[in-house]
Specification:
Layout: E1 2-8, H1 13-26, E2 31-37, E3 45-52, E4 66-71, H2 74-79, E5 84-93, H3 107-116, E6 120-124, H4 126-133, H5 139-148
Parallel strand pairs: 1-4, 4-5, 5-6
Antiparallel strand pairs: 1-3, 2-3
Helix pairs in contact: 1-5
């Protein structure tokens, strides 16, 4: 099982990958992980690769090889969609985060683009998480929980 988690700095991408990896290890599975981190500050692109199973020999998922993409931010999900394999699943947060560089950003357009693709799409309502918890801080955990049952053998 190959799972790519993407978002921006400060959203907990690395934490989400560690959570997913630890849960797989607790089930006795072999796990490889790697992070590719953009700008070393909030707002930079962050991608974590999580590979679960005995048939993985490298921590990096090849293009077109992800079974699941967990996108904590819509634009980052679009940026990384090339990693998804045919028939794969994308779980994406509905909450966009405007780039720190400013400019126009329409997360709705990114979500519409993802919806137009021939993919299995799960949209996770970030506002519901905010209303329940009073914060977006748990969104990464909610996203992992939304797809974790798909990683069980």
């Amino acid at each position: 099982m190959n799972i790519l988690i993407c978002g921006i700095g400060g959203q907990g991408v690395v934490y989400a990958s560690k959570l997913l990896a630890n849960r797989a290890l607790q089930r006795g599975e072999t796990v490889h992980t790697a992070e590719t981190i953009g700008m070393a500050q909030r707002g930079g692109s962050v991608v974590s690769h999580v590979r679960i199973g005995d048939d993985c020999y490298s921590p990096l998922i090849p293009a077109g090889g992800a079974d699941i993409i967990i996108g904590l931010e819509p634009a980052e999900t679009v940026r990384n969609i090339g990693y998804l394999k045919p028939g794969g699943i994308v779980a994406v947060s509905t909450r966009g985060v405007a780039p720190t560089t400013g400019g126009d950003y329409a997360p709705e357009a990114m979500l519409a683009y993802l919806g137009s693709l021939n993919i299995n799409l799960i949209a996770v309502d970030a506002e519901q998480v905010f209303r329940r918890d009073g914060s977006y801080r748990n969104l990464n955990v909610e996203m992992v929980n939304a797809v974790e049952h798909l990683t069980l053998k």
